[in-house]
């Protein structure tokens, strides 16, 4: 029996992955705080699920789409590092450990970059809360020495896909004529279609020589200004009123989120994947938006 374990697998990405692996004939186990799945407190159940698994994918972590107050900061950090350590300890207790463990990380680990792209080899790590979370997440993951389990961390860019995810608010803004640039508009927007993210997981699984850190991002990031232009063009909306930074700050307070999600320049390039021969199905923002919005 082919077996995949999805930790934190009830969100947007997890649901897509569950469906994808089930279509490929895998039996999917999910570890989650939600009822009906393996509980994070059920150590024996986690070990049993992991024993003999072909693949473990950890997507667990509180959403960063919130205000960065002390309580949320603590939960954002601990929900990533704690679950990673729970999985690491469980893998150590397996008679037949998973062949591959892929742990989510984030492209936000790199600094605000408008001058050059960030690659796995030459990228410069940033500073601030989000970066410290990403560093601690990867440190927790790679702290385990697992001779029978390959480990890969995916520094995932903003994931776009049909039926939800980050693109939904952009769609509403564009539809109501507010789809202009946000803030200066020069900040880079690195993204990946959810299908390509799933294909990257499959590719790493098929290549037993691959491990370590990978940027999971489409090869052609755009500026925020270019993103919103393509949104308007794809959705056939002629007008897009820009949103200045001060208005974004006010709106973020109202909807209880942070402007970093929009204003940080994420210029991330998947150098390792491209060098290893991975081919993206949706390499550009144009092809991604057309697929996500189902426009022929």
From TrEMBL:
UniProt-listed InterPro entries: DUF1731, Epimerase_deHydtase, NAD(P)-bd_dom_sf, SDR39U1
SUPFAM superfamilies: NAD(P)-binding Rossmann-fold domains
Domain of life: Bacteria
Pfam family, one: Epimerase
Location of the NAD-dependent epimerase/dehydratase domain: 4-207
Signal peptide annotation: none
Record field: transmembrane: none
All residue ranges annotated as the DUF1731 domain in the record: 243-291
Entry's family note: Belongs to the NAD(P)-dependent epimerase/dehydratase family. SDR39U1 subfamily.
Protein known as: TIGR01777 family oxidoreductase
Record organism: Paenibacillus shunpengii
